[in-house]
Fold this sequence. Notes:
The protein is built from seven helices and no strands. The chain is mainly alpha-helical.
Amino acid sequence: MASSVPKKVSKFWPRIKDIAARTGERAAVLGIASAGVLGTIKGYQKIMGPIEFRRDFNAMLTFDKSLKSQDRDQVEARFRTLRTFNKPMSQDPLVASSFVKQTLEIPHVPPTLVGDLVKAQPEGGTAIRDITRMVSSMVSHED
């Protein structure tokens, strides 16, 4: 037995080597592929996130022109809160403008309202979570 293998692991080492030999190549390929996909998604989100934010924010201002006469920093802060806790709602100009107008009337956004935003999110996961789940299930199946 190699001296680099801890004593507690040494009795399991033949089984570990066998599993690694059978699944190592496939796991390595899937690991590299998933890392590439996840990296691509993260890169896309980093680039497109601010672009989509500005697009949706401007669509809201175009839809409800009365928001342009409000304090822009406060309007953007309210929109950013909506965006952070429920992105799909922030993509609808009617919903986004209604949320911003309603929250502009109070000095702060109450935590209960933030909780409601989180609860109102559509079911399902992000693309990253879905891909991770898919890759994990592929790696866990032995030949």
